[in-house]
What does this fold into?
Amino acid sequence: MTALTVGNVTLTYPDGSDRVTALNRVDLSVRGGEIAAITGPSGSGKSSLLATVATLIRPDSGRILLETASGTIDLATLSRRAAAGVRRAGIGIVFQQSNLIPALTAVEQLEVMSHLGRRRLPAPAMRRRTRSRAMELLEAVGLADQYAKHPAQLSGGQRQRVNIARALMNDPTLLVIDEPTSALDTERGSAIIDLILDMSRTHRAATLLVTHDHTHLHRMNAVYTMTDGVLTPAHTATAAA
It folds into this structure.
């Protein structure tokens, strides 16, 4: 069983001669196939928590344990190089904006994830497997028929679906999702939340989801509120279990 455990994590930023506390002794846990939602006002530390869990920022103190089938890793202690390797192999990140590469088609957006960090072009057999995996994920998010389109030819909701499929390309054990519906209308936003719920459970990924939309919180396995860097449990959902 995969799982994420954040224990007593503190993160501060320099502010002139002083330091500002972004995360204040944060604790949380989420198991594989479950989603923990994080709400709270802008500037409260939500994105700092996601960046820390995703190994993009190293905390001042605390533990971030990621349990996988092959063992447990403390993400808080990794070197930059090791962290980059873990992100490529085991962490899927979905940003507020899709950040798709304009020159690549939908299927190529996914394929490139399998080639990150490689010094040589993959063999033809590997390229075929990569294409097959990418097409399977595009089909899973309802975009198999859009595989050859570039980002400019896709709607906002479609681009976010490609973004989610791309995050799943390397079968991550951890999904970190930051405001995936912020740029979408209610209908498209609801469809994206449905997709995240389905993909997280299907792929058994431990998922952290930052959101301002309270409409779907009852469907999450746990809900936390972030205020001035302090994370507190707000609600534990039963419908999502």
Summary: The mean pLDDT is 90. DSSP finds six helices and ten strands in the chain.
